[in-house]
Amino acid sequence: MKLAVAREIKSIxxxxxxxxxxxxxxxxxxxxxxRFAEKTVRQVLAATPSGxxxxxxxxxxxxxxxxx
Length: 68
Hints:
Strand order of the largest sheet: 1-2-3
Strand content: 25-35%
Structural class: alpha+beta
Radius of gyration: 11 Å
Number of domains: 1
Low-confidence stretches: none
Order of helices and strands: HEEEH
Shape: globular
Largest sheet: 3 strands, antiparallel
Number of strands: 3
Distance between the termini: 30 Å
C-alpha cells in the first residue's frame, strides 16, 4: 500500500470518528474494517489516492453506516 493511501485512510478514519482501522485485503481495491465504539464497518476503497470529493463521499458513507 502506498504511503499516500495509508494517509488517506487515516484521514477518513479520523473524519468519520473511527476508533481504529485494519487492512483486511489488498489488491486492485483495499478492504478496510473501520472500528467504531458500537460497530465495525467494512468498506472497499481504491488502491490509489482519491480526490477531495471522493474522500468526502467515503467519509459520509461511513457516517451513514454507523448511524444506521
